[in-house]
Amino acid sequence: MRLLIVEDETGLRQRLAAWLREEGFVVDEAGDGDAGLAMGRHHPLDLAVVDLGLPGTEGLALIRSLRAEGHRYPILILTARGRWQDKVAGLEAGADDYVVKPFQREELRARLQALLRRAGGWADPVLACGPLALDTRDQSVRLHGAPLELTAFEYRVLAYLMHHAGEVVSKTELVEHLYEDDDQRDSNVMEVIIARLRRKLDPDGTLRPIETLRGRGYRLALERT
């Protein structure tokens, strides 16, 4: 999942970005509102974390602009402003959640995961499709109730497909949302990862969990349960 942090305090932004990368996110960083607005407009984002007191375009104006332009990914405000009036203003501007600094990482992680689930139409932290279950809390996967060992990147690909279960996801979309840098992006590598996932999810060839739609991309074909 690709996440944007818009935060002018450099140390906090860098620490937050490093931690979220450890959590499996691809992270874009902006140190002011103007850069954040440009990235929010043009980067293929799944989620944004925005401070309010930003140089350049202020946080509320940034959020209003993105919403007015039709960007619908979840936005979480992370700010030192803790008055109820500020919270109301942020939510009415178009934010989906509001966290006051200082914050606990566990709470922020839970809120970010909840926003991603809701954006994909999921309510429960365990995403279940047929016999496949992915727990977003501890990043574990079970198949027919048995633990399934995946690499970190295999998990990220599967999580993206499960968040978008039933939808066609192009190779380009997967690459843009799951790779940090342009020089890492290789659609051929994505084909290898998909092939490995198929072998692990369907060793006997009866489940057929991931469909390939020629010229369009991939689809997790298991029904949501």
Describe this structure in words.
The protein is an alpha/beta fold. It folds into 2 domains: 2-120, Rossmann fold; 126-220, Arc Repressor Mutant, subunit A. Helix content is 41%, strand content 20%. It contains 8 helices and 11 strands. The strands form 3 sheets. It has a 5-stranded parallel beta sheet, with helices on both faces. Helix 1 (10-22) links the parallel strand 1 (2-6) and strand 2. Helix 2 runs parallel beside helix 3 and helix 6 (152-163) packs across helix 8 (187-201). It is elongated and about 55 Å long.
Number of strand segments:
11
Helix-strand pattern, N to C?
EHEHEHEHEHEEEEHHHEE
What do we call the CATH topology of the largest domain?
A: Rossmann fold
- Helical percentage: 40-55%
The order of strands across the largest sheet is 2-1-3-4-5
Q: What can be said about this structure in brief?
A:
This protein is of the alpha/beta class and 225 residues long. Helices cover 41% and strands 20% of the residues. The model has no long low-confidence stretch (mean pLDDT 94).
Defining key terms:
single chain; 225 residues; alpha/beta; Rossmann fold; Arc Repressor Mutant, subunit A; 2 domains; 4-stranded antiparallel β-sheet; elongated; transcription cis-regulatory region binding; CheY-like_superfamily; two-component regulatory system
